[in-house]
Task: structure prediction
Amino acid sequence: MTSRSAAPPWWRNRRYLPWLVQGVVALAVGVVVAFLLSNLLLNLTARGLLLSWSWLGQPAGFDLAESILPFDASLPYWRALLAGLVNTLRVVIAGLVGATVLGTLIGTASFSSNGLLRGLARVYVEVIRNIPLLLQLIFWYFVVFLALPNGTDAIQLPGLVLAKSGLFLGDPQLVNGVWQAPLRFSVEFGALLTGLVVYTAAFNAEVVRGGIASVPKGQWEAASSLGFAPLVTLRRIVLPQALRVIVPGLNSQYISLAKNSSLAVACGFTDLYSVSETTLNQTGRAVEVMLILLGSYLVIDLVISALMNGLNGLVQLKER
Amino acid sequence: MPPRFTFAIPLIAALALVGCAGDGGGIQSQKMAAIKGRGILNCGVDGRLPGFSFVGADGRYSGLDVDICKATAAALLGDPAKVTYRDLSSTERFAALGSGEVDLLSRNTTMTLSRDAPGGNALAFAPTTFFDGQAVLVPVSSGIKSLKDVAGKPICVETGTATELNLADRMRVLNAAYTPLKFQSGDQTYAAYLQGRCVAVTSDRSQLAAKRTGFPKPSEHILLADVLSKEPLNPATINADPAWADAVRWVVYSLIQAEEMGITAANIDAKLVEAKANKNLAQLRRFLGVEGDLGKQLGLPADFVVKTVKAVGNYGEVFERNVGQGSPLKLERGVNQQWLKGGLMYSPPFL
Result:
């Protein structure tokens, strides 16, 4: 009895109080979310718009400019959305690789002993990251890619043709005024990919530069005194240490790239967003289509994030 | 009479009086009363579509859709200038009309079942002022004569209600493969077409003709004869005010009927004198409000037809001035011709 009376009252008990506060907060959040959801449901019911997914199985009725998966207008909406998702993944994956390579090159160039190279790297970063991506995409598409010659005037190399309609690889043939080849990349894909790579590389370069700068100068000097050449020093000694700082920074740039890929509609590329827009227009299923869109980008970004966190674990200092 | 019902007598009497008060005052329309009280008609237009509604260099609105606003203002308020124009996007337009922000929507809007139905957008549509349809624009130099020739080639698509669907349907019938390139905005669609990315661009015929006027060399592009869809463009009001919808409906008909009867902005005064002088011209007298009470039945002035025609001319004049041969669009009358000349423009009788 005496020990119990010595315990503080429940409102000052450190064992229960935090739980109580957390419980109340959780309850409040739960009530607000439940209210919002029930409100949404109520309004949707009132307007006869209860969530329904049966339209996904109906024929889409529209065609896609490009798709790796076979697609035609008689296939259902979910196939169209899937084709859009695959196109998005295609440009995101290619973009991640391109932006990493270019970003690393420019980031390391800003440590070059060559003043011109250093200056160019600075100019690149400052110019590119201060111009909106949408403008850059429109520039790449309308000013650069659509200025390519067409038809018989196209740039022709053995096994490769670069024309206004795209890049054609592997014995391209001009059939009825249209280039055809086994492997084809449209100019829309090209413009979007170039825009995303050039833009994201500027940010990646800054992350890489910051990472390299975080490695103590003594590491360079020690390598130099041991007779390592500057490039070898960078590759063997500095970059592995810099990665610890670089990887977390790159993570958010990669996620940005995936999200920015939805600007594809600016240059006519058939990505997930573009397909969703048409689907919404035709079905009027705004809430469902938006849920699919939100879910897709969320999953893509979470996967990128998870992979980068895994990589981060690998490059951290091993403390034994 | 049982005493408990006696209290109801004054109530019933009051209700009856209230009911009569409305009938005695003529037409019941909150909207028309509100517009008259305000002295200004709020008209929703596109505002960026040459030929239909466009702000000219002098800052004034002009176009076929705008003329419907002017004619309505002339009929109801006696002055075609008493209009406030609101530029509305395609997503804003129905909300603006429903909320009462605009009284009349004259904004190249296609009439469809779901937009008309009370369970849909619940609009009340006036008669079609322009029979449009999805069409295809190609460069003259391409040598393309019909949609069939587009097979295997890229087409730029300006997205609309069902632009992509209509195109896909037609190409499937033709059994022709093609590449549909879709852009976020109309401007990008036409830019890609002009850059030669596509051999054709598809949208509504009126839209294509209007955009063509802004091309560097408009004469180097032609519209194919193929019609991919029906797009009747109608002015619209809300379902909830049938009297107002009727007034707008007959304002539009007055322009069509005037053309059929050969009445123009130029000869309307002479026709009026003629009608007043000759009692045998009964049809003309009724139409111009010299006899009968057609205008009053609508809640409009007796001579509302005189006012509409004086304001904008007859339908043929409106068409030619804004989108026809008198305009940069140079559209043929086509199905928008009078019914007597093989078109679809037909006004019910003014009786």
